[in-house]
Design goal:
By secondary structure, the chain is an alpha/beta fold. Helix content is 26%, strand content 27%. Bound molecules: ligand PMT.
Length: 218
């Protein structure tokens, strides 16, 4: 009997949290890690949707790509796609905070408040994990220290099946670079240490590993 096609949802890139039409809070995510994951998922035959924050990258071939700007946009698009997915891989670097002030016109330089009040953005992964039925949820944890310990805390807090712990802050790993260093932590406690490599290579290894581990092969 033919197996059902796996439906994969990937998020990638930063979010931008504007306080007027020309100024925002963001982070240096390029979208590369999640983009390569979406491409690798497509290449093993999964029907893949990529929700991509502001990024210079083009749409990966064969992947339904939805472009968003803010954490709120990413939440709304992710919620729409989540119900129909079998596996979510959340590689986006969602801004944790946004300015409370939001105006529709460019604020005059002299009128910009020097202390900007912030509020938390929605936690997309936590929101989706509360709606989880059969979906497999894999988060990312970007850390500059205590990699495994902090990542495990996020795995628990967000009720994930696994988390990719990503060391960030160096030149050859994390935000913006073409290469990366990641460790996959399973809910069972099993730790899979991938060799540092190009994001493209790591994405392919990660998808193949996850596919086998969760029994998603065709
Ligand atoms: O895009 P690149 O330049 O290739 O860089 C890749 C990367 C470093 C951005 C990527 O590999 C990575 O580590 N992504 C996760 C970054 C992050 O925001 O980590 P976090 O530890 O702050 O968040 C933990 C998890 O919660 C993540 O899966 C994140 O997507 C999610 N989250 C965070 C905040 C929020 N408001 N909602 C969320 O869903």
């Amino acid at each position: 009997m033919a197996q059902k096609t796996v439906r994969c949802l990937v998020t990638a890139g930063p979010t931008q949290e504007y306080f007027d039409p020309v100024r925002f809070i963001s982070n240096p995510s390029s979208g590369k890690m999640g983009w390569h994951i979406a491409k690798a998922a497509r290449e093993i035959g999964w029907e893949t949707t990529l929700i991509l924050g502001p990024s210079a990258l083009s749409d990966p071939d064969g992947v339904k790509t939805v472009r968003v700007v803010s954490a709120q946009d990413m939440l709304e698009e992710s919620e729409k796609a989540f119900e129909k997915c079998d596996i979510l891989i959340m590689a986006a670097a969602v801004c944790d905070v946004r300015p409370k002030l939001k105006v529709g016109h460019k604020v005059k330089k002299g009128e910009i408040p020097l202390t900007v009040e912030l509020e938390r953005t929605p936690d997309i992964l936590l929101t989706l994990s509360k709606k989880k039925k059969e979906q497999i949820l894999i988060g990312f944890a970007a850390e500059t220290r205590n990699l495994v310990e902090y990542a495990k805390e996020k795995l628990e807090q967000k009720n994930l099946d696994a988390i990719v712990a990503n060391i960030v802050g160096g030149k050859s790993s994390g935000f913006g670079s073409d290469s990366n260093e990641i460790v996959l932590i399973m809910r069972s406690g099993e730790i899979i240490d991938f060799n540092p490599a190009e994001k493209k290579t790591l994405a392919s290894h990660l998808i193949k590993f996850v596919s086998t581990k969760f029994g998603l092969e065709k």
